[in-house]
Every structure is written in C-alpha cells, then in structure tokens.
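User: Could you go from structure to sequence for me? I need the amino acid at each position, not a summary. Structure tokens:
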C-alpha cells in the first residue's frame, strides 16, 4: 500500500475568469518520483504553483478545493499553512536555471540567510551537504567564491537544486528540469533526481517521454481536468529523446 504525501481534491484554478484546472483529484506517493505529463497548456505548471502557492504573486487568480500535504503524520491544507513554512517544506526548481548574481556559496546559503541562520559552522556543513546532494560538490568545492553565473547550464541547474535542498524540503517540485540542457547535462540531472527520492518526495513536470520513463515511480496524466494514473508502457511516444 502506498504512503501518500499529497492529496488533491476538487481543485479548481481560475486565471481571471478562465478555468485552468477543473475539479482536479489525485494523490502523490511519498518518497517517490511522480511525473506529471499531458498536452501543452493543460495546467501542469499551474498545478505545481498551486501546491506551493507561487500563484499568489499573480493578480486575478482564484483557487477552490483542497491540496493537503502530510506533515508530522497528519494532513493539512497548504492554504492553512504560513507561506514561509510551506516554502520550507515544498521547494521548487524551474525550467530555466535561475542562479542569483553572486557567488556559488552565497547562492546555496541564501535560503538559510533568509531564515535567520547565523551559525557559520552549521552553514558551512549545510552548504557542503546540499552541493553533495546535487552532485555538484566535487566540481565546485575549490571555487565556492566564484560567480555562479560562470557555471555551465547543467551546473547552474544542479546549483538551483542544491539551493532548494539546503532547507531539507519534504517535497521538491521540478518544472521541466532538463528542457534547457544538452544530453550530458540532462543525464546528470536524471541520475540526481533518482537519488533525491531517498530524501524527499519529487513531483516532476515533463514533456519528454524518455525522461519520464527513466525516472518515474508513478506517472499522472493531466487531461480534461483529470489526473489519471498512467503506466510507463502506455506513455505515448513523443519528441525530446535527448531529455
């Protein structure tokens, strides 16, 4: 029997008066990789933004229904949590890497600084562990003070994953995490994601058949307002073999 981390029930999302998600229902397994697939424009990214409430920065949006996350062995509606608490528990990595214009070290430590952490030894340990979690430590350990923007695209994406992981989130949302990367960088991200499910629950939005088949424990297809479980063998062939 699956342990469920997130339950979605009767979820409606409106941008202005336009419905984007309609009566959505579904479940996300704990400590597993759940990939969400479906046609372009169906609301996959919107669903991620509802889970960690990023949509709240967009004017004229409205949500109905519930998204419950299991914290401390009980389910709570994400809209009843302080947003700062939610964002610590639910991290997000975007399609295009977005390192801050500062050093590698300062990029990774940024969320800890925002949380008021000041213990230097603790910070140093957490940065090292986050970079190791992101398969990046060996590549940058001797240049932590270098500008993060000088890293390759794949390294920048792993840096963003490290920045998310330093808060030890219970859920990590990833929106097309390999779409802007070449084959070698995409394969590193693929192996990285498979290792991270030992630490947290991952929800990945992807258009790419090969990525979905390679990493997924569960696949949910978002179509016509429904989330349907889809067997890997029944995923439609499509473009994007690199990713």
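Assistant: Here is the amino acid at each position, in order:
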């Amino acid at each position: 029997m699956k342990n469920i981390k997130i339950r979605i029930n009767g979820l409606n999302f409106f941008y202005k008066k336009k419905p984007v998600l309609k009566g959505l229902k579904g479940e996300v397994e704990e400590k597993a990789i759940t990939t969400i697939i479906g046609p372009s424009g169906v609301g996959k990214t919107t669903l991620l933004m509802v889970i960690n409430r990023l949509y709240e920065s967009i004017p004229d949006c409205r949500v109905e229904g519930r998204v419950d996350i299991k914290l401390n062995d009980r389910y709570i509606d994400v809209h009843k949590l302080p947003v700062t608490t939610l964002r610590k528990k639910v991290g997000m990595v975007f399609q295009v890497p977005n390192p801050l214009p500062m050093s590698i070290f300062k990029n990774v430590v940024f969320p800890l600084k925002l949380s008021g952490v000041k213990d230097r030894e603790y910070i140093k340990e957490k940065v090292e562990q986050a970079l190791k979690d992101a398969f990046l430590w060996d590549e940058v350990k001797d240049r932590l003070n270098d500008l993060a923007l000088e890293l390759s695209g794949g390294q920048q994406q792993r840096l963003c994953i490290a920045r998310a992981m330093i808060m030890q989130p219970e859920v990590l949302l990833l929106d097309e995490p390999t779409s802007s990367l070449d084959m070698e960088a995409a394969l590193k991200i693929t192996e990285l994601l498979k290792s991270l499910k030992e630490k947290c629950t991952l929800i990945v939005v992807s258009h790419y058949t090969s990525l979905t088949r390679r990493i997924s424990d569960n696949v949910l297809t978002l179509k016509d307002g429904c989330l349907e479980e889809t067997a890997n063998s029944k995923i439609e062939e499509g473009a994007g073999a690199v990713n």
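One structural detail worth keeping in mind: The CA atoms of residues 103 and 145 lie 5 Å apart.
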